Amino acid sequence: MDQEIYLDRNTFFHRLDPRTKILILVVAFVVILYFDNPLWVLPLSLLIILHGFFAKSLINLKRISFILVILTISSMVLWSFFANGEKPLFWVIELEAFEFAIARTLIMLSLVTEGMIFLSTTRTEEFVLGMIRLGLPYRVGFAISTAFRMVPTIVSNVFIIAQAQRSRGLDLDSGNLIERIRKYIPLLIPVFVSTIRNTNVFGMALEAKGFGAQNDRTFYYSSEFNKNDYIVIAFLIILFAVATYLKINGYGTIPGLTKF
Amino acid sequence: MTKTVVSIKDLKYRYRGQPRNALDNINLDLEEGDFLVVMGPSEAGKSTLAATINGLVPHFFKGTIKGDVIVLDKNTREFSVAEMAKEVGMVFQDFEAQLFSTNVELEVAFGPENFGVDRQEIAHRIEENLKLVGLENLKNRPPSTLSGGQKQKLAIASVLAMQPRVLVMDEPTTDLDPISKYGVFKIADELRNREDLTLIVVEHETEEAINAGKILLINEGAPLMYGPAGEILRNVELMETHGVMPLGITLYFSRMGSKYLPLTVEDGLETFKKNKWQISDLSYQKLVEKDKEHLQEHQEPLIICKGLEHTYPNGCQALRGVDLQINRGEIVAIIGQNGSGKTTLVKHFNGLFMPTKGEISINNKPTSEQGVFELGKQVGYVFQNPDHQIFSDTVFDEVAYSLKLRNADEELIKERVAEALEAVGLVGFEKEDPFSLTKSGRQRVAVASVMAAKPEVLILDEPTTGLDYAEQRSMMELVKRLNESGSTIIFVTHHMWVVAEYAERVYVVKDGLIMLEGTPREVYAHEEELTKAFLRPPHLVSLSNRLGKTMLNVEEFMACTSKDGEEY
């Protein structure tokens, strides 16, 4: 039913220019990956949580809570095993590896959260506009936004088709994983056929609305940089500079850790 | 002098790889402010004709074109679809696929944006057009949260925002409930009065064509008749022979031999009185008796719901306590507005959904104890869109699929498939690719594939949507035959005349509750309540209601009319 991720709210962060929103996303993604030590990652994660809080977007994390749990568990297990250190903690896991696993998990969750905040505060149209202002051709931007838009439609199609086949006696629920995957294969045909039939109308409707009729196009939701954008950008530059300086000078590592 | 806006000359068009012309010798001149309705059976070329007006034919589709289409002095051959879009707006049947944006306001802005209209002017157009279609309070809503009717209205507003001189609508109301249909046509009616706009609507529901200025009737690509709407609508025989549903009221008066043929309910009432006809109480009593007899034939309960509730994981409560009973051997219709919970309800009947509260039992056993796999053997379910269930390479494999899954032996499979194909009239198509069939053909394959498993109960979700009148009739005759051979039938539909003619009992669903229940005669007598559920009986039934009795089809009406009085 509710397929939109974007939350229509009027917060400080919603009002920013899409270019600023993209910059926040990029800086957050770069800076948080600098550090291996969870104590250094933590403040950055907190900043992201604050961002989400003031953008009133944390509610959207509920929708992906299941994925977050899976991510946390698998990342904790994987990194604990795959990294090595000197001080044994328990069984084959060393203290350094465990710390590193915490940092990696924090990073992963932060990235997902930041991504979710971005989607919650930015309309597809704004994102496309931002990308175009940064030099992307309109058609490419539109293709990206269409791809986003198609996902929920395809997902709901898959659900209906699975129901249709189950009512015909296709048992999708029993058997081991491989058997179950094999049973889903015939479902792909109706999914493709109905998607292609859809796309055809989509293409016609697009042309019928004058898509690409002329090169200069208006953007109804135009936006310009204002004071708030400059403040945020200044903050991001300082954050980036400080974090980079610290990184280059070797801060934020875990002594004794060997990574693969 | 009025100006010719659309001019079609000797137009012929053939899709690549097709044996016959999709359009054959179409000639048409429309003046500014005209309102043309294009009617005809499936595959008649209606949509192809609509697509020629803005140049989708020949630019988007592949095929060969002869003759010319000239819109406002522009020959569509020489201009791209996007360039034509400035003059010609187009609304499609599929309201999901024609909306691109994340909110209502941006959807309307999309067209003007493409033409570089300045932002203030766009704001003005958004205001004006949303008001016209009655969506001005929903500016910030994402289109995906709108109802079907609202989506179609939004599509119209978004096209009007480009300020086209010609508006083409290709079956804009096919997937809508009766009141939403009416809403869309009311908008069309308002537009008709705008002198600067020429309106072309493809439609196969005749009741919606009454207000047209002209009607063009086509079949197999060739024009059959073109003229003022009243003239065409009164030619009931021509319409019937070409698979177009004639107006019930007009058909009745024509069969009764009335000199004047009315089109509307008001007009019909007046003519009935002027003709000094009477409704015979005795004959009507017989109809009511017959209904009772039918009901008494089926008394053994098969499906029982008590306080059935269903809440989706996202918290949306689709059913809010449904009580119903369906007896073995019945043919039951479930009707209601788009999104009223009809489909959610019937998906409980074969175990696809389990109640979140309340009970549902089939054959005296709760569905939760049986599960969809077990229930599937007793309850067959034909989905609304055949493309959601078809995936085999041949018609034979498709129909045999269920049986193969249940490990039936070769001989039995062959026998059952032959039976099922015979019933749906597809003998000889065993080796065809189901995807190459028409919509009606694919729908038949879908029905056959469910029938072949010989379920006791057959559920059909909108079996007649997207079919033309002749196809709807033959689909429902098929369903009736199945019912007579012992299957219990439950169908969901928006087609009110189908309910009137084929159902023994009706449930009206509104906001997740049963609002009315009874024989079609009982239910259709409550016109006011039906309106609240966004439903309207067919015009003919409305006329009979105005005369104090509820008659469901032309035959019943004729049987109850006495012509003792003087004819005028």
Structural overview:
The complex is a heterodimer of chains A (260) and B (568). Chain A has 8 helices and 2 strands; from the N terminus they run αααββααααα. Chain A is an all-alpha fold and 260 residues long. Chain A has 2 domains: 18-123 and 229-248, no CATH class; 137-208, no CATH class. Chain A has a two-stranded antiparallel ribbon. In chain A, strand 1 and strand 2 form a beta hairpin. The longest helix of chain A is centred in the C-terminal third of the chain and has 32 residues, at 177-208. Chain A is flat and about 65 Å long. In chain A, 31% of the residues are buried. In chain B, strands 6-7-8-3-9-10 form a 6-stranded mixed beta sheet, with helices on both faces. A 6-stranded mixed beta sheet of chain B has the order 17-18-19-14-20-21, with helices on both faces. In chain B, strand 20 and strand 21 (513-518) form a beta hairpin. In chain B, helix 16 packs across helix 17. The longest helix of chain B has 17 residues, at 281-297. The chains are: A mainly alpha (260), B alpha/beta (568). The interface between A and B is large, with 55 and 73 residues.
